[in-house]
Amino acid sequence: MPPTPLAISEEVRDAIERGAPVLALESTIFTHGLPRPRNIAVAREAEDLVRSLRVVPATIGVVDGRPTVGLSPDEIERLATTDGVMKASLRDLPLAMAKGLSAGTTVAATAFLADRAGIRVFSTGGLGGVHRGAQQTFDESADLPTLAALPLVLVSAGVKSILDIPLTLERLETLSLAVVGYRTTDYPGFYISDSGYDLDFSVDSPGEIARVVEARDSLGISSALLVANPVGAERELPRELHDDVLTRALDEAHRLGVSGHDTTPFLLDFVQRETGGRSLDVNVDVYRGNVELGARIAAALSTTPL
Ligand code: PSU
Ligand code: MN
Q: Which are the contacts of 230, defined by CB distance < 8 A and separation ≥ 6?
């Protein structure tokens, strides 16, 4: 076997080998999703929360061309504060490696690297999906087809309403990606607890999610299980503010001709600015909830405690 190109931290490697719980975390959320300096604080807090639940955090990104599973605090800080760090989806990983670039990894790239390292559970904020107007632009996140080929559990708060939610749900069905709500059948819309679209199934505990995963694995099905975990209704973004800013964000992206992989960061940045940071607080709450649930699922699936 050729040597693995992955740098896996000792702590993460040891936990994986022992069957102790590990939770993967992505880096695009702090390289391109959240503004400085909040981004570093959020990345650190997420790791601390995972550790407090006796689970090993594995934040994943690319450092100087090296895909890394279990970034050190210094590496997280570097990625979070350096200008021009790339946003790497799966197709960009070989390019970042060959060119020696540093990158935040999207859900697709992070999921791929997590699976390569032997990690089974991954928490993110919002999942990529089908963009509005995709009927013309074909802009669908590589997150979806990539997750369709990886036997992980991915915890998110659904997809943001910057995307086309019903088209995204259709694509999940086509790709055989199961999606379950955590204690609800309302599909969340990230900033809001209910997008207005419904799911067929809810699950009530990390243990129940573990049983779904065991059943999936026993059949040899190798697509991710998507767990949609809504933000508490009392902490969601006020609906009117949400709808107003959303409309303006989409208009502005259209007016400026923003397209391709710049679309998601552009829209997220617009929403953050125009809600005066309120969406940012929701974003952080949402992420915290997903990290906590992911850690509990990782613990339920592990064979050895930490
Ligand atoms: N959705 C969010 N916040 C994010 C992203 C999505 O609410 O930061 C990031 C994730 O890393 C996701 C990526 O994988 O954007 C999707 O980008 P694209 O639509 O270009 O595939
Ligand atoms: Mn895209």
A: 157, 158, 181, 182, 184, 186, 188, 193, 194
Q: Which residues contact 178 (CB under 8 A, 6 or more apart)?
A: 212, 216, 223, 225, 226
240 is catalytic: no
Does ligand 1 lie within 6 Å of residue 194's CB atom?
no
Mutation to probe ligand 1, out of 89, 92, 106, 132 (largest number of atoms < 8 A from CB)? 106
User: For each successive 10 residues of the chain (306 residues), what is the average pLDDT?
Assistant: 82 97 97 93 98 98 98 98 96 97 98 98 96 92 97 96 94 97 97 95 98 98 97 91 92 92 88 90 95 98 90
Here the ipTM equals: 0.93
Residue 67's DSSP bridge partners are 62
Q: Closest residue (by CA) to atom 16 of ligand 1?
A: 128
Token pair of 194 as six digits: 């209910």
107 known ligand binder = yes
288 exposed, middle or buried (CB, 10 Å; 0-12, 13-18, 19+)? Answer: middle
Residues with CB under 5 A from ligand 2 (ion): 139, 141
Specify the pTM: 0.95
Query: Do the domains 1-119 and 121-244+278-302 sit in the same CATH topology, yes or no?
Result: yes
Assess whether 99 carries a catalytic annotation: no
Q: Residue 111 and residue 122: Cα distance in Å, rounded?
A: 7
- May I ask the CATH architecture of the domain 1-119? 3-Layer(aba) Sandwich (3.40)
Q: What is the DSSP letter of 131?
A: B
Q: Say if residue 139 carries a ligand binding annotation.
A: yes
CA 250 – ligand 2 centroid, Å: 14
**Sequence ranges of the domains in the chain:** 1-119, 121-244+278-302
Q: Out of 3.40.720.10, 3.30.280.10, 3.40.1790.10, 2.60.40.10, which CATH number does the structure's domain 121-244+278-302 have?
A: 3.40.1790.10
